[in-house]
Task: structure prediction
Amino acid sequence: MKDISVPIWQKSNLTLDEAAAYSGIGKNTMRNLCNAEDCDFVLWIGAKRLIKRQKLDEYLANRTRIER
Result:
């Protein structure tokens, strides 16, 4: 099977590591944001979390500060 590589900015969902690298936000801070009850940019698949890239972009565009 051929290994397909998709650039991060073209993926619809990102892993926690990819989302941290993509946004410049630390992995622990990103994890804390995802754990919030009102987080609408996280997609849970069992215990695995994926970050909805476009929703993350919208979230960040509307923020001037992110608390740890």
About this structure: Residues 8-61 form a domain with the Molybdopterin biosynthesis moea protein, domain 2 fold (CATH 3.90.105.50). The longest helix spans residues 27-35.
